[in-house]
Amino acid sequence: MRNSIEAHNRVKDFDWEPSYVAKPNWYPTKYKIPAKTKDPFRHLVREYLSMEEEKDNREYGSMEDALARGQASAKAEPRWMEIMKAVLPIINFGEYAAMKSTGQLIETIENAELRQGYLAQMLDEVRHTHQEAYLVRYFAKHAADPEGFAQGFKLRGTNLFNRAGRAAFETFFVGDPIEGALNLQVVAETAYTNPIFVALTELSASNGDQVTPSVFLSIQSDESRHMANGYSTLAAVVSNPDNLPALQIDFDRAFWRQHAFIDPFMGAVWDYFQANRTSSYIEKWREWIDGDWIGSYIERLAPFGLKVPRDYAAASERTPWLGHTAAMVAFGAWPLNFWRFDPLTPADMEWMELKYPGWYGFYGKFWDEYRRRCDPRNGELALSLFPSMPPLCRVCQMPCVFPRPDISTCRIKEYGGKRHAFCSSACESFFDQEPHRYLGYSTFYELFDGYDLADYIIENGLLRADGKTLIAQPWLDMERMWTIDDIRACRYEIRNPLRNGE
Amino acid sequence: MSTGTQSPRDFTYIKPRKRRLSEYEAVSCYTQPDPNVFDRQGWYLLTFEGRAAWRSESTRLQHPHWFDFRDPSGLWQRTYVRLQAEQERAIERSVEDAALAGIFRDFDAVWLNEIIGIHYRAWSFFEYGLFRAFSRAQREALADTIGNALCFEAVDRIRHAQSTVLYLMELEASVEGFKDNSGKEHWLNDPVYQPLRALVEALMATEDWAELAFAVNLIIDPIVSEIGVSRMIRHHAPHHGDPITPSIILTTERDRRRNRAWTEELVRMTTVDVPAAGHNREVMQIWCDHWRPAAIAAAKAFSPVFNRVAPRAPSFEDELAAACDAQADIITALGLVNRNGV
């Protein structure tokens, strides 16, 4: 390229104001974006293609060659590999939703500089969607236990945590395109991709999974550009003071919607599925979210009038407990999932107490009892340890048990002749602002209230290839696995906790 | 493992098009959720205006299971990026070699200044408009395999637009006195390009993603791009001392063939063995009747430019008639009728 600055200027001079046919307003936005801003992405399509091709060659080459021949995935810690069955289909939808989000931004935001960034991100998101689906299939082929990898994309639709993940990531593209950018680029990508794609790779590697890091680090090399997109979008929004009142409301909501799903879920993944223990989730959270995101990124925007999210203090206070509570629900409800669980050992429990002082007092008894209920010969489900299945939040789809069952912030209210549960005052406030946005679906309990657990498992395809054994198991013991007959013998009925005033 | 039977080691919920599941199918299929497939609860969020993530009314075509669609090219991100990176490298090399060999100085003046400097440059705005239209269309498509094809087409179009700009910069550097500074002015005001601009503005305002693909890939490219780029520039360039531009255009024709093929597949999928085949045929017939005259009008407006390029036979009218006949063959092969002649 003879003169790359000139080339960048010229490729940004394609826009014109249509004069024959007016441009429809398909994705209404309440924000006013200046027509010219800084360019977050100084790459031509030609340069982008060559860069991504090289990254693809490195990543897929290593997966197909050395890692496959060395049977890296079959040798990884089974405890760790199991949770990848849940993680990958969830993240995959995030990427796919992001592709749709950037399509909306390209359409709506009349700013050539920002559009340069969005267009590369659009293809990046296809890349990540395909990389992660490829990784799931790779694990289906190479992991010790393929059940759950092979069906993950099918089973995620009715899974407790995958549903909540979908609810969190629909925010990327269902709504005002700028609200989508706040959820996607400013919160999910800037705050959370470092813990997910960078820090998680340390955990993968220390648990013998050498394949995930090669995919995730390649993804993260694109994410840094997306963070720049987020920053430039945000800078463009705050440059017009008229945008500020709406921005703060949307930003507050974006933060909580991502936090309400990602922190409980990632906390449980992090602290309960590492076999060779390294750091705790809360340590990473303090470093990446509290330190980097709030401490440097968001506070740099303070002079423009953007404040730290309204519910950030509440989030910070409750985050230490979220993963533990989510893990308790996930392990307790193990038959509803599509991966295997490895109960905490006494050494794990010591680590929990060390990293989260007071942990045993809140969760220890559950784990003592859980271990006993792993063996199907005992005929007791861990689910029976709970007085009822938890209500699910109308807004974020998470179980309403957070931050801890003893101090749950669950609230229930009537609206439109029905009772609705909310996990927190924040989610309730979003519902109060725009209730119609959260009423377009059937709830889990509307579909499955009154089901025998065994029928639920059969109907939702949660059995292994033999048609008898559950995909999910409460422990890693492959000799003593639960079958559908074991479940049926327990006579557990799924009951809507909001049913008829109960 | 003691499950008794062999555990699946592949995505058995995807019905492969051929005997075995392809890499393309494995990474693409069912990455888009759908309440009629695996996501029974529906959509968890609506927009303020009340719309859900995806809506069946985003196209007038009907199909019981859009996820059956397969792009005949079988491209997924890795193979798509590899293809386009190769095409861009090929362009970069041939342009660099041509510059070093002094070939650009052999272009005749009318060809350089009027055809490449104005006509081909104005064309890049058309491609850019299509980039924006296809970017939005990919957002709305009702299955992942269709959304990906639309997304790749969006990237094709921005690639064409940008590579034209880079090419003209190289010409500026190689040919004294040549300046790339009037393409936009002609795009906005020259009567030759106004029907084309009106056409792309109409495409940018077309809500139906299937209609966009149908109109562009089966009607507009076969007539307008065929005349305006392939027959006018690629075909005549060698007569004007230009062996280079055709090699760039050939990469766009490769993209066009791929986009035509997947759109033909979409038409087949919606008109053969589905309950709404008759309805879909009617809808596409309406699209055909609507877009063909606009495409022909846009192409006809190029006639003065064409006559500067190729005063000798075949005449512009013959060329246009040949393009329209070839386009008509595409349409009739799909079971539709051409009701609007040249």
Characterise this structure.
The complex is a heterodimer of chains A (502) and B (342). Chain A is globular and about 75 Å long. In chain A, strands 1-2 form a two-stranded antiparallel sheet. Chain A has helices at residues 4-11, 45-69, 72-75, 78-108, 112-142, 152-155, 160-170, 177-206, 211-238, 244-272, 281-298, 312-332, 346-355, 359-372, 425-433, 444-448, 453-459, 484-490; strands at 411-415, 418-422. By secondary structure, chain A is an all-alpha fold. Helix content of chain A is 58%, strand content 2%. Chain A has a single domain, classed as Ribonucleotide Reductase, subunit A, CATH 1.10.620.20. Chain B has 342 residues and is an all-alpha fold. Chain B has helices spanning 23-28, 77-101, 109-140, 144-174, 183-189, 194-204, 209-234, 245-271, 277-300, 303-309, 316-333. The longest helix of chain B is centred in the middle third of the chain and has 32 residues, at 109-140. Chain B is globular and about 70 Å long. The interface between A and B is large, with 93 and 85 residues.
How would you sum up this structure in a few lines?
The complex is a heterodimer of chains A (about 500) and B (about 350). With about 500 residues, chain A is mainly α.
Secondary-structure map with pairings?
The complex is a heterodimer of chains A (502) and B (342).
Chain A: H1 4-11, H2 45-69, H3 72-75, H4 78-108, H5 112-142, H6 152-155, H7 160-170, H8 177-206, H9 211-238, H10 244-272, H11 281-298, H12 312-332, H13 346-355, H14 359-372, E1 411-415, E2 418-422, H15 425-433, H16 444-448, H17 453-459, H18 484-490
Antiparallel strand pairs in A: 1-2
Helix pairs in contact in A: 2-9, 4-5, 4-7, 4-8, 5-9, 7-10, 8-9, 8-10, 8-11, 10-12, 11-12, 12-14, 17-18
Chain B: H1 23-28, H2 77-101, H3 109-140, H4 144-174, H5 183-189, H6 194-204, H7 209-234, H8 245-271, H9 277-300, H10 303-309, H11 316-333
Helix pairs in contact in B: 2-4, 3-4, 3-5, 3-6, 3-7, 4-8, 6-9, 7-8, 7-9, 7-11, 9-11
